[in-house]
Amino acid sequence: MLTGHASHQIGLDADIWLTPMPNRILTDEERETISAISMVTDHKTLNRAVWTEAHAKLINRAALFPEVDRIFVHPPIKAELCRWASGEQWLAKVRPYYGHDYHFHIRIGCPGDQAGCKDQSPARPTDGTGCGKELAYWLGKTPWPKKPQPKNPPKPPPSLTLKALPPECRGVVTAP
Asked: How many domains does the chain have?
C-alpha cells in the first residue's frame, strides 16, 4: 500500500525536513517517533526561534541543481528567502504553497531517457523571482479561507494497491 502525496508516487518528488539532524545516531524507536519542527507560527510569520541561515542555505543549494524544477515552501519561508537572497534568480524555482512549513518539497525534472515523462512548464514568476505580487497574494487572506466542515464527510478513497499501479511503477516496486 502506498500513502502520502500523490505527486511522490512517480519518483520525481521528494520532501526534505527542515528539522536539523541530531548530533548522534538515533535509536530505532527515536527514528519511528521523531517529529518535524514547524518553521512558521502562522500563514505569514516565520518562527525565528527555530529558523536559521542554514535552512536558507540548504534550500538555496537544492535550487541551484539544474535537475530541480521547483521547490515548494510555506509562504513565510519564501518571504524570508526573498529577504535573504534579494533578486537572485534561483528564487524563481522556490514557490510558496500551503503545508510546507516543516519541510520543503523538491520536484525534479524528467530524466532525458524516460519516454512518457512530461516536465511541467518552467516556473516563470511575473517579477522574475516570485517575491512580488505572487508572494503578497500568499501572505494575504485570499488563499486562506476557512472551509466549512461537511455534515457527512466523504469516505476516503481506498488505498493504492500494487495492482492499481501503472506497469512501470509495479516494475520498480517489485524489482529485486
From this structure: 1
